Amino acid sequence: MQTMALSATGIQREQFARLLEEHRKIVFKVANTYARLADDRADLAQEISTQLWRAFPGYDETRSFSTWMYRIALNVAISHLRASRQRDARNLPYDESVHDDALVDGIAEPDERVRDLHRFIEQLDALNRALLILLLEERSYREIAEILGLSETNVATRISRLKQRIRNDHSAKESQDRGNHHAI
Amino acid sequence: MQFDDMKSAWQTLDRRLEQQHALNLQMFRDSRTDKARSGLRPLFRGQIVQIFYGMAMILLGVSVWSSHAESTQLLVSGVIVHVYGVVAIMLAGITLGMIRRLDYSAPVLAIQKQLAQLRSFYVRSGMIVGLSWWLFWIPFVACFFAWLAGVDLFANMGGAIGWSVAVGMVGLLATWGFHRWAERSGHSRWVKAMNDSMGGSSLRKAQAVLDEIKRFEQ
């Protein structure tokens, strides 16, 4: 009996490991969006994976694995962000020299769009970051609603506000760049 | 940056992730997840400690009210200590129940709301258990001496009991007044630190999270 239980756990572990490997990018993307430093990201990715494993026995196989995974990953990441902000009461503003994504193998991030994306993400609160990830991942309104626990209408409203914020940010950056150019 | 640029930057990051190392799956194969860090574990342990603390109070209260029925003050003190113990256990039990109900696979907003409510409840219940000592120490000390040496403190203290109650009331009201006053902005760091040590900042943070969720839902 004990052997059967052990093998069932073993099968479950293998099944989980396979699913996690297939969807590992979700874990990394969420960790990269919510944690600033490499060590912190690695910790968060591991924390998400651990929480996924703990919750796995309750996973309903008739439902989408990615939706289930996004819920857990985002919940863990939001809590992690809040806890790390409390730890770091100074709440330092975004600094590219500190942010690891500014550097790839010691070389400054070559892609300006990636830099701008990280700068924009840093300005967002925890819930809007979740919305942005799901939007950039091209998830349907229905799935976003299921993951966040909002109505589809509310998701549409939140997305339209977020897109407006992106446009405003773009206009502000453009006028700032023009100002800098004139100053030179 | 336009939304399309953002999507293109996201795809660039997506391609980079292809090369990122695999997650540490060894951890699951070794069944070591129980040892993994859990943010709520200290809170969980704290509640277990509070349950034992409540049980000690109940034992003390019961031993005094059941054996000193001749003294009304000791009888009442015993009942107060007993009730305090029950309340401490109940508050810890509710907090543990709230922790247990947390299901991280539930929708994000629901869980974040539950976490903020848990934090708020935990801080408030801590305040109830802690601040009540302004007055609770009187029946507690009376019970403790009655249990330890069979001494009736009330018979020996006379008017000092009235003064102790008055000081306790003033202390309790002063703490509450200080908390209300310190919640307003424009105070020194010392005032803020004092208030934060009483749970003020935790309550504020929990409320801020609830407000953030409310704004997001609108």
Describe it for me?
The complex is a heterodimer of chains A (184) and B (218). With 184 residues, chain A is an all-alpha fold. The radius of gyration of chain A is 19 Å and the shape is globular. In chain A, strand 1 and strand 2 (107-108) form a beta hairpin. A two-stranded antiparallel sheet of chain A has the order 1-2. Chain A is built from 8 helices and 2 strands, in the order ααααββαααα. In chain B, helix 3 packs across helix 6 (133-149), helix 5 packs antiparallel against helix 10 (200-217) and helix 6 packs antiparallel against helix 8. Chain B contains 10 helices and no strands. Chain B has one domain (28-217). Classes of the chains: A mainly alpha (184), B mainly alpha (218). At the A-B interface, helix 1, helix 2, helix 3, helix 4 and helix 5 of A face helix 1, helix 2, helix 5 and helix 10 of B.
Topology:
The complex is a heterodimer of chains A (184) and B (218).
Chain A (H helix, E strand, L loop, with lengths): L1 H21 L1 H11 L3 H18 L9 H23 L15 E2 L2 E2 L3 H12 L2 H11 L4 H8 L3 H32 L1
Antiparallel strand pairs in A: 1-2
Helix pairs in contact in A: 2-3, 2-4, 2-6, 3-4, 4-7, 7-8
Chain B lengths: L2 H17 L6 H4 L11 H27 L4 H30 L6 H24 L1 H17 L3 H5 L2 H24 L5 H9 L2 H18 L1
Helix pairs in contact in B: 3-4, 3-6, 4-5, 4-6, 5-10, 6-8
Short characterization:
The complex is a heterodimer of chains A (184) and B (218). Chain A is mainly alpha-helical and 184 residues long.
The parts of chain B where pLDDT drops under 50 for at least 5 residues are 28-37
Give the count of structural domains of chain B. 1
Oligomer: heterodimer
User: Total number of β-strand segments of chain B?
Assistant: 0
Overall morphology of chain B: elongated
Helix content of chain B: over 70%
The helix count of chain A comes to 8
Q: What fraction of the residues of chain A are assigned to beta strands by DSSP?
A: under 5%
Task: Specify Rg of chain A, calculated over alpha carbons.
Answer: 19 Å
Average pLDDT confidence of chain B is 83
Please provide the count of β strands of chain A.
2
Strand fraction band of chain B? under 5%
Overall average residue pLDDT of chain A? 83
